[in-house]
Input
Amino acid sequence: YVPPATTPATETATLPNGVRIATENTDGPMIAAGIYADVGSMHEAPYQSGACHLLEKLAFKSTANRTHFRFVREMEAIGVGMAAAASREQLVFHADALRAFTPEVVEMLADAVVNPAFLPWEITAEVEKMKLELDDLDKNPHQQIIEGAHMAAFTGGLDKPLVAPRHQLDVLAKHPEIVAEFYQTNMCGKRIAFAASGASAGEMARLLEPTLGALPAGNPTPADGSAYVGGEVKTNAVGMGANVMLAFGCPGWRDVKGSVGVTVLNVLMGGGGSFSSGGPGKGMHSRLYKRVLQKNASIVNCSFVNSMFNTTGFAGILISSGETPASHLVDIASAELLELAKPGALTEEEVARAKASAISAVLFNLESKSIAAEDIGRQVLTYGAKKDLKEYVDAVNALTPKALQELAASMMKSTPTLVSYGDVADMPRLSMIESRFK
Output
């Protein structure tokens, strides 16, 4: 008899300086671990703009104890994979390795976070790479729209750019002390969580106390006051086709019921590219696939998108075409959103399918130790603790077509965010779009 598998309990510990440790001691030969900091571009002062983006690129470079070359050779020697990611709210340093190398992996992660050297020549080299990335960004309408949407939709720290502005890169290269100052001000014990899948909290606390435990305690993350306000960004770029996003304010992650509802709406609306019919939430049964992509051959992409943060967010439709005028694209997006908010428009069948797909996607993803560790770390930063998976599943199962329709209708009472890029000279003004939802 083999007993059914159960999810290990989440173990927790706290270092004297406030660093929170949360782990799940799952079976298997691998460990996934990460250091998660409540630090993002929203915390940058104007003269520090781009510092968080640059920190992502400088991860695992030289420290007080290692050169970058030594870092790379040690990673290769034990087969560890390391990565870093910056966002508007959080900064992440992550590693995957064989469990036998847990002490080495934890020490390397901590060294990268506690002792960065910020060598001027390494900063200059990364800045040059970032300039090339900005050249690629200029050719990517969807990325332009997503970044523009954040700056239009929010007030407070969330409207600050995540991608370093081009003119600011030279400033950061010339004054490396700006990055060092931002780092030293924000990277403190009370704003950091360590998460792992495949380890015990007690073992991690013992390994981390000499390293992460040496950081100053500092202060908790300051309240920012960011809020959704809506707005408009229009960028004419001839020859790039018409690309439009129409979105509205939505609940943030700390509103568990509301954020779960937005997640299910995202699956239900689905969509995708004209050639991407596979995958949960973007297949032939999603509303945007059936109602837009199947009926409009000239539309190359129509997707429901959302961007959620701790206390606020936005959700809406991103639609693109090389032939259809931008004004018609925004008409299609408006019609689909209005239909979503109409009483009785959602059927029991499509809602049940979306709920099952949402639960399936989460359960499938959490089979990966890397994703499980990230889930633990981000939840500790967002909620202060890891929530039980059953709470999410129960919240999804409790949703009804009426509840989802009411959520959509409440979102559309906010001011729209209208962002367009490319051949968009014929785009109507925001006030005209807003009047459709009154």
Q: What stands out?
A: The longest strand covers residues 299-308. The longest helix spans residues 120-137.
